[in-house]
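Notes continue from the previous slide.

Worked example: a multi-chain complex. Inputs as given:
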Amino acid sequence: MKQNTALADEQLILAIRQGNREAFGELYDRYYKKVYHKCLSFTKNQEEAFDYAQESLMKAFDHLDTFRGQASFSTWLYTITHHHCIAGLKKNSRISTTALSEQFTEDETTYVAVASEDTTERSEQETIMYTLINHLPENEKTLLTLKYEQGESIEILQQKMGLNASAVKMRLKRSKEKLNAMYMLALTYGIEQVLEMMEMF
Amino acid sequence: MVKKILFPFSAATSSYYEGYSWASELASKMGTELLLFTASKSKDEQSLQHIYHSLLGAQGYYLQSAYHKNTKPARTERWIEIGEVKNTLLDFLKKNTSYITIIDPSLPALDPPLLSEVIQLSGGVIVLPSSPAPKVENKQGAFYEKLHQAEVYKLPHHFFDTLGSDRSLFNYLSGFFKKKK
């Protein structure tokens, strides 16, 4: 075990894939308290935070083989935790669909920032997100940039895009959902693979 | 009817992790719920946090030493009382008699008179051995070796029926018989 403490997360993951159970313990021990506190920041309830933390850790460690190392392990783990908590609270009606939507729509980088408190990781996450935005079809990229980077209102977007309000909102919603999905895929499979996929469609 | 599993523990140290893993595995095999019972001097935020951290640590130990690759854990509930584990445990068992209680050797001050009372109040009792985990390569084998070494009291017939349907047990036993040939 002592040998493992000096290893980086990614080295531990390699060791785990080779069947090293002690490496599994070391990696788990590094993060379980942090995952718990992340869950607690959502639930404000220790009992519930414990359930979400346990489930998030299980989910992540059960799917370690899908971790491609494009983002850091902590980024990947916190993103899984973040999504698990949101999904759980939504299921228990603790977050309304509108509130959830607002959390993701006010600024996509907020979503990125919530997944990690570490500046390095945030920067890494932002890089992935901006790379994805830059590879969106031009009309989607323009729409998202106008709305979230330049803060344009729906009315202005209507005029610029020549669409009615509901069409603008629908396109924004679809673009954001697509971006979120691509982001999750990028964290799991790597940005290059996702960019290849985006070019195919 | 499958009874629920009760696992009393003290979060003061991590010495209950081994017993926790075994109880989790048992609950998983029996398809029943595991009630994790402990007591604390108070239920302030810090005390509760210490207990939940400790339980997550125990869960990590279980996953690390998992008896099988499929790590789907048993459903758990937590029951936290204020006071000492041994006294609150007896009070709990007086009101809830249908549990199979797993007694871990790390449980503080479980002297013979107290153990008799736990046995009397429980729907069944398994006292885990204080010796270290058996050196068995096969994890399923380790689980059943531990059961073999444990002291069992009042276990209902269906307990063995349920465990008897565990396919991994069959695989373990058949492997054992192959070795004997």
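Summary box: The longest helix of chain B spans residues 45-64. The interface with chain A takes residues 45, 48-49, 52-53, 55-57, 59-61, 63-65, 71, 73, 78 of chain B (CB under 8 Å).
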